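Self-study notes.
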Amino acid sequence: MHPDPIKCYLLPGANQVHALNVYYMVQVLHEKLTFLAFPALNPFCFFIAGFFSSLMGILKNMPFMILLLSNICSAYLIPGIVANLPRYLEIHFRKPAYIANIIAGMKLFLALLASLY
């Protein structure tokens, strides 16, 4: 092994540069070890801890969760209506397929216009 493992990467005769490089390497090594040894100082740990505490606060909020569940259910309901409306019109009102599709298209277009205002 080389007597000075840090000095073996430097040019010979560069004493000032060597001293600065050693100082810089010690600082970087100290910062990395502090970052790993003390996770409380790690900003990512603050983010994770804050994220999970916020998530638990949201999950314990019952009115918000009920509102979220109702919005999810209504979001699944609309594509089902869109997909099955023409077939329902064909069977229930005995309309041909092209008429049922036209009626369903007009209804959906009017619903889209109504939702914009």
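Second protein, same conventions, sequence then structure:
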Amino acid sequence: MKTNRSQPESNSQAQSSQKEGEIPLIPKRRSSLRLKASLIGVAISAIPIILLGIATYQINKQTVDRQIKQNQESTAEIFADEISNFLLERYGDIKNLSKQAIFYRL
């Protein structure tokens, strides 16, 4: 049966690496509190930035959608005018052709 002797040895090595009577630079509780405070600070500062980004996206999306709709409407109006002009020209051509003498001989 194996005994787990490596763990006590590593603890004793870690303790021997520190000088006796020396206070560790960052105690565990303090680093835990520091970590928690840092995470809370990051969260508090990130939430408004995220909300601002979402609001800006929504506003810009509406603006872009409105511009696209206006562009499509103006393009449709231009095409409608072009088609109308084309048909009016063809109607004029038909009127002119109908006045030709060839059509009166029938």
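Instructor comment on the second fold: The chain has one domain: 28-103.
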